[in-house]
């Protein structure tokens, strides 16, 4: 039987819908995946063997760029953080933690300020532009800015994250292809109810690219995000030019004399809110590390 490669776009109770050059093939995975401890997930590139028209088996999962546990998705190129300055107003501390998590995972964070028809989003746009991210200002309500966002999604796998009520579903409804909308499934799947299911799916963006919608900030693999205190500085990209320029080696950049990072905050080159988030993550990591050390000594 013929062999081909494809990408898993949907996973549901042991079956996988794999998109290939010849169309979508519904597949089962070979039993040996379990032995190898590899469970195919949405976003995986796989080698499959067709068994009958439209059906097949997955023989191999090709090497992954990255993989997340919740939601179970692989090969994510970017996470689009949908934020807003009107209710629900985005908490930058929570957002910065998620951005740091994305940085650690090697996934590009993209900031999308929604509801710009109500508030221009200037504060968030300024913070994240200064911090070195690509920022889009959109309105899912009017469609303003959506075309520019589409261009950034073309040819990539993107995940969407953001607080409930920030407008992810509204935005996705504008971004997804007509075909996806016509199935009538989208509004239902993107509705509140779906978060209770284990259903994960990649949707086609109009203009190219695939998107996975994800639940609120809190559940995007946060428990597994436990950086070492020393590594936190590298998860804030705008700190990079100043690292190594502090007076003391091993400077924590919290309140030290001669700290180049603090000087940059003072000068406005690093947004103050970003530094505040850094200090919080650093201190958390520090207390976690010392707690771990104490408990290791006891054993
Ligand atoms: P989700 O929970 O992130 O999926 O958010 P929804 O897409 O369900 O949107 C939450 C509410 O915000 C709904 O009442 C939307 O109509 C509204 N909303 C979404 N985007 C916009 C926008 O760009 N402007 C305005 N004014 N309202 C919006
Ligand atoms: Zn410093």
Keywords, separated by commas or semicolons:
single chain, 299 residues, alpha/beta, Rossmann fold, Ribonucleotide Reductase Protein R1, domain 1, 3 domains, five-stranded mixed barrel, 29% helix, globular, binds guanosine-5'-diphosphate
Secondary structure: number of strands: 14
Class from helix and strand fractions: alpha/beta
Q: What proportion of the residues form beta strands (DSSP E)?
A: 15-25%
CATH superfamily of the largest domain: P-loop containing nucleotide triphosphate hydrolases
CATH architecture of the largest domain: 3-Layer(aba) Sandwich
Strand arrangement in the largest pleated sheet: 10-9-8-11-14-13
What integer value in Å does the Rg equal?
21 Å
Described by the principal axes of the CA atoms, the overall outline is globular
Q: Which hetero compounds are present in the coordinates?
A: guanosine-5'-diphosphate, zinc ion
Total number of helices = 9
How many domains?
Answer: 3
Give the CATH class of the largest domain.
Answer: Alpha Beta
The percent of residues in helical segments reads 25-40%
Structural features, described:
With 299 residues, this protein is of the alpha/beta class. 29% of the residues lie in helices and 24% in strands. Residues 182-189 and 191-197 have low confidence and may be disordered. It has 3 domains: 3-62, OB fold (Dihydrolipoamide Acetyltransferase, E2P) (Beta Barrel); 68-219, P-loop containing nucleotide triphosphate hydrolases (Rossmann fold, 3-Layer(aba) Sandwich), CATH 3.40.50.300; 226-298, Ribonucleotide Reductase Protein R1, domain 1. The chain has helices at residues 32-36, 92-105, 122-130, 146-153, 168-175, 178-182, 185-189, 260-266, 272-298; strands at 3-12, 15-20, 23-29, 45-52, 55-61, 67-68, 73-74, 78-84, 108-114, 134-137, 157-161, 200-201, 203-204, 210-213. It is globular and about 70 Å long. The strands form 3 sheets. The chain has a 6-stranded mixed beta sheet, sandwiched between helices. The protein contains 9 helices and 14 strands.
């Amino acid at each position: 039987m013929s062999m081909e490669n494809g990408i898993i776009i949907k996973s549901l109770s042991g079956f996988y819908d794999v998109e290939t050059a010849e169309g979508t093939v519904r597949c089962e995975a070979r039993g040996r995946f379990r032995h190898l401890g590899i469970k195919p997930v949405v976003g995986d590139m796989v080698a499959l063997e067709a068994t009958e028209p439209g059906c097949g088996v997955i023989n191999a999962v090709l090497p992954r760029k990255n993989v997340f546990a919740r939601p179970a998705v692989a090969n994510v190129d970017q996470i689009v953080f949908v934020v807003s300055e009107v209710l629900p107003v985005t908490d930058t501390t929570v957002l910065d933690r998620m951005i740091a998590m994305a940085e650690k995972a090697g996934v590009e964070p993209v900031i999308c300020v929604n509801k710009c028809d109500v508030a221009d989003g200037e504060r968030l746009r300024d913070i994240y532009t200064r911090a070195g991210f690509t920022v889009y200002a959109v309105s899912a309500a009017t469609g303003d800015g959506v075309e520019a966002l589409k261009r950034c999604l073309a040819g990539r796998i993107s995940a969407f994250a953001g607080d409930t009520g920030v407008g992810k579903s509204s935005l996705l409804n504008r971004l997804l292809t007509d075909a996806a909308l016509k199935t009538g499934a989208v509004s239902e799947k993107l509705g509140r109810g779906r978060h209770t299911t284990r259903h994960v799916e990649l949707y086609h963006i109009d203009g190219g690219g695939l998107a996975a919608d994800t639940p609120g900030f809190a559940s995007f693999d946060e428990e597994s995000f436990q950086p070492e205190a020393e590594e936190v500085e590298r998860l804030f990209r705008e700190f990079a030019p100043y690292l190594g320029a502090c007076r003391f080696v091993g400077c924590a950049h919290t309140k030290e004399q001669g700290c180049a990072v603090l000087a940059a905050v003072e000068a406005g080159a690093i947004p103050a809110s970003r530094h505040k988030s850094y200090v919080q993550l650093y201190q958390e990591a520090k207390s976690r590390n010392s707690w771990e050390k104490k408990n290791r000594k006891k054993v």
